């Protein structure tokens, strides 16, 4: 069995056993070495964002002291949900290894698949209302004019 | 000007001034009262997940001591990126007020729009490789069989 996935699965098992959250684990690897590992802690921390991938990315960023993880790969026991996929994009991770599919995760009652369908415009699910456009746009211009800005 | 958006914009301005991150602020509201507010801190914390909406959701969950924020609304100075939208879904927030569009955020150099295009399958951007399917699937079954499981 893949050594990295073994650790991700071990994390997930620990999470189930401790009742920390859903059955999901993730590992971040750089140059063949594990930088961080985590499991879902939504129930433990009452934090809807505490998915395994998010926590693993946050830990890896703390270890490497940078938000750019483009030299890392991620191993996760299930295909990332839209939130985690977004985090992977922002972390500039280019390669993700995963175990189970969206459909399989949906079959045990999680909403990842439905959220993807909402994002693709196939289902409704959120009211998005634009307000205060002009004042908000000024913020973007203020950033654009900032000479010492760092891009991420 | 909308009072909630005023606070979100003030947060964003503070973030620009302090060089904490991008020009984005967010506020979470319940029963007409502000529960939490935050601005982007990606640069300050070297954490790629430290977007205003994510931080505001995390703070609100700490305040209310629950992951379900379905009785809350979110105000954000720019349309949420896929990561933040995913977090909004998981938090069960039903209504989001936003200031600027994906195109406007893209025009000052941020990748939100491109990430949406990758998710919709319109662009390439990530290698997703399935491995260790069987062992990973066992985790989902273990969860399914767990009698005292809490669903989120």
Briefly note the structural class of the backbone of chain A.
alpha+beta
Main sheet overview of chain A: 4 strands, mixed
Strand order of the biggest β-sheet of chain A: 2-1-3-4
Strand segment count of chain A = 5
How much of the residues of chain A is beta strand, in percent?
A: 15-25%
Q: What does the overall shape of chain A look like?
A: globular
Largest chain interface and its two residue counts? Answer: A-B, 90 and 90 residues
Low-confidence stretches of chain A: none
Multimeric state? homodimer
- Sketch the topology of chain A as an H/E string, one letter per element: HEEHHEHEHHEH
Helix content of chain A: 40-55%
Report on the structure:
The structure is a homodimer of 152-residue chains. By secondary structure, chain A is α+β, with helices and mostly antiparallel strands. The first copy, chain A, is built from seven helices and five strands, in the order αββααβαβααβα. Chain A has helices spanning 3-18, 42-45, 52-64, 82-90, 102-107, 112-119, 133-145; strands at 25-30, 33-39, 72-78, 95-100, 127-130. Chain A has a four-stranded mixed β-sheet with strand order 2-1-3-4. In chain A, β1 and β2 (33-39) form a beta hairpin. Chain A is globular. The model of chain A has no long low-confidence stretch (mean pLDDT 97). Chains A and B meet through α1, α2, α3, α4 and β4 of A and α1, α2, α3, α4 and β4 of B. β4 of chain A pairs parallel with β5 of chain B.
């Amino acid at each position: 069995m893949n050594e990295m996935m073994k650790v991700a699965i071990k994390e997930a098992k620990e999470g189930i056993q401790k009742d920390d959250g859903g059955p999901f684990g993730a590992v971040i690897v750089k140059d063949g070495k594990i930088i961080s590992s985590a499991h879902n802690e939504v129930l433990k921390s009452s934090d809807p964002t505490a998915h395994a991938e998010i926590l693993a990315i946050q830990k890896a960023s703390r270890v490497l002291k940078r938000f750019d993880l483009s030299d890392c790969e991620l191993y996760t026991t299930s295909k990332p949900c839209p939130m985690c996929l977004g985090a992977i994009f922002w972390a500039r991770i280019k390669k993700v290894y995963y175990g189970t599919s969206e459909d399989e995760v949906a079959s045990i009652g999680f909403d990842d698949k439905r959220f993807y369908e909402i994002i693709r415009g196939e289902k409704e699910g959120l009211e998005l209302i634009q307000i205060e456009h002009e004042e908000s746009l000024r913020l973007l211009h203020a950033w654009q004019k900032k000479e010492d800005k760092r891009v991420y």
